[in-house]
């Protein structure tokens, strides 16, 4: 099917003719044509002969075959680009316009109109974009002046957090795909003597010691910096009764319960936006080529006193290989009338619950166990005071090397 | 010579249509027929087509037969084919 399409496109570009061949020995004419290596197709019998299709070039070669076999040739149809050009040859401005259009498309397609950056989480997109600009990679830059390989090598050596880069250009879009390296946790070497200390305050729930002397037990309350497991081992000789000290690399997993309190006020009254349904839309076209300039379309005056403005940007063709060199911006202004409303206690509590959940998700690491959540409400005339106590269970052990250990040899 | 070639192609399992210059005929249902290695067209109309091949004259009978492609060694006919026959 695809092949057929290519063939059709090719025959259209080259141009072809439908020829009526009439005479007494049409078969002989066909044989002669085929033997001379001329390609013909879609041959249909007609009265006293045939109708067939062949290229313009082939048609010129047919004439001798026709003379030899005493057949008459008659062109019944002309198809394809060469005939279209011929038909419009006198209309100079039209032809010029077509030529200009093709040239314009060709030139515009040789610039970059969009840069996408994918895969970055810690390295900001702006930083990568700004750095790429020093290697000529910017919106509106000519593709010829950009060496993607060079850019990717430079990004790799400039950003230490990036471990792999791929820069590729398709159409008018350049995509930079980066892969960030996993941050390394500083770790003490196994042979360094160390103590295990508490990284935070808490109530010990579990302690598993692999080496060293545990100094705390389950249900002990510890403060930040307290030694949990000591790497200092006093050894008393059985024979002499002398005690010596050996320093080891203490290792333990210590879990502790921790309490995190926070409180906030929730006002019982709030402003409700009653939308009137009146809307105004402003369109703006931001041209990306050369001097970046905006063209405002249909910008009427906004007569609303209170309104929400919703802006959306859209670069046509951004989903395909050829993003366009402009950004279409739509700003919707929605009028509303502010109304003061009061929350009921249930509504306020539900709202507080949502705020708490949101804070937990935002402020606590995902691998921390949240054991309990205590919420207390205090009703004031205008506000609802919410006090929250979150109980978590997490590891608090931290290895700290022992300063100046006395090595005994 | 002909017998020797025949035996040789059999022995080496070579494609016969190339060494012995035989026509290869591909029939797609009864809608399309392709003949490779044909010699010439003897008769051509929309109901009867006679094609000369090295294995004899092939008669194709049907209705609304048209020649889709035609090159030096390849010919494709489409239409409603009702009969195929080798003459002589």
How would you describe this structure in keywords?
heterodimer, A: 409 residues, alpha+beta, 5-stranded antiparallel beta sheet, 4-stranded antiparallel beta sheet, 8 helices, elongated, B: 88 residues, Immunoglobulin-like, 6-stranded antiparallel beta sheet, 6 strands
Overall geometry of chain A comes to elongated
Using the coordinates above, name the CATH class of chain B: Mainly Beta
Taking the sheet with the most strands of chain B, its summary is: 6 strands, antiparallel
The arrangement of helices and strands of chain A along the chain is HEHEEHEHHEHHEEEEEEEEEEEEEEHEEE
Summarize the structure.
Chain A is built from 8 helices and 22 strands.
Notes on the structure:
The complex is a heterodimer of chains A (409) and B (88). With 409 residues, chain A is α+β, with helices and mostly antiparallel strands. Chain A is 24% helix and 44% strand. Chain A has eight helices and 22 strands. Chain A is elongated. Chain B has a single domain, classed as Immunoglobulin-like, CATH 2.60.40. Chain B is built from two helices and six strands, in the order ααββββββ. Chain B has helices at residues 2-12, 16-19, and strands spanning 24-28, 32-36, 40-44, 48-53, 56-70, 74-87. Chain B has a six-stranded antiparallel sheet with strand order 1-2-6-5-4-3, with no helix packed on it. Chain B is elongated. At the A-B interface, α2 and β2 of A face β3 and β5 of B. β2 of chain A pairs antiparallel with β5 (56-70) of chain B, so a sheet runs across the interface.
């Amino acid at each position: 099917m695809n092949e057929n399409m290519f063939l059709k496109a090719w025959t259209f570009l080259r141009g072809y003719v439908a020829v009526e061949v009439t005479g007494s020995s049409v078969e002989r004419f066909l044989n002669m044509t085929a033997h001379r290596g001329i390609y013909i197709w879609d041959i249909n019998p007609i009265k006293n002969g045939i109708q067939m299709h062949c290229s313009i070039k082939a048609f010129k070669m047919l004439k001798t075959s026709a003379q030899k076999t005493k057949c008459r040739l008659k062109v019944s149809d002309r198809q394809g680009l060469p005939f279209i050009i011929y038909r419009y040859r006198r209309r100079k401005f039209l032809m010029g316009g077509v030529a200009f259009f093709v040239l314009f498309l060709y030139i515009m397609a040789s610039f970059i109109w969009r840069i996408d950056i994918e895969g970055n989480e810690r390295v900001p997109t702006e930083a990568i974009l700004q750095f790429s600009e020093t290697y000529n990679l910017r919106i509106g830059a000519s593709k010829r002046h950009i060496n993607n390989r060079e850019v990717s090598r430079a990004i790799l050596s400039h950003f230490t957090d990036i471990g792999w880069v791929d820069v590729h250009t398709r159409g008018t879009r350049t995509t930079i795909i980066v892969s960030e390296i996993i941050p390394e946790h500083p770790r003490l070497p196994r042979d360094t003597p160390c103590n295990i200390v508490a990284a935070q305050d808490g109530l010990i729930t579990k302690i598993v010691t692999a080496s060293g002397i545990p100094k705390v037990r389950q249900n002990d309350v510890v403060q930040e910096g307290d030694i949990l497991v000591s790497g200092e081992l006093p050894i008393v000789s059985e024979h002499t009764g002398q005690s010596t000290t050996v320093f080891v690399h203490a290792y333990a997993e210590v879990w502790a319960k921790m309490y995190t309190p926070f409180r906030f006020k929730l006002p019982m009254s709030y402003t409700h936006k009653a939308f009137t349904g009146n809307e105004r839309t402003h369109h703006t076209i931001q041209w990306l080529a050369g001097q970046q300039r905006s063209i405002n379309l249909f910008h009427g005056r906004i007569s609303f006193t209170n309104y929400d403005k919703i802006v959306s940007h859209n670069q046509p063709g951004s989903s395909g290989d050829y993003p366009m060199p402009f950004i279409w911006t739509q700003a919707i202004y929605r009028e509303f009338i502010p109304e003061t409303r009061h929350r009921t206690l249930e509504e306020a509590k539900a709202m507080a619950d949502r705020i708490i959940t949101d804070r937990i998700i935002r402020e606590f690491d995902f691998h921390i166990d949240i054991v309990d959540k205590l919420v207390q409400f205090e009703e004031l005339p205008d506000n609802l005071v919410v006090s929250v106590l979150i109980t978590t269970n997490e590891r608090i052990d931290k290895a700290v090397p022992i300063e100046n250990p006395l090595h005994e040899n | 010579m002909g017998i020797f070639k025949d035996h040789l192609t059999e022995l080496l399992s070579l494609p016969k249509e190339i060494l012995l210059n035989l026509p290869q005929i591909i029939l797609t249902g009864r809608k399309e027929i392709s003949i490779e290695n044909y010699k010439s067209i003897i008769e051509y109309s929309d109901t009867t087509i006679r094609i000369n091949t090295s294995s004899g004259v092939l008669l194709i009978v049907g209705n609304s037969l048209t020649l889709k492609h035609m090159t030096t060694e390849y010919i494709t006919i489409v239409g409603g084919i009702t009969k195929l026959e080798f003459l002589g």
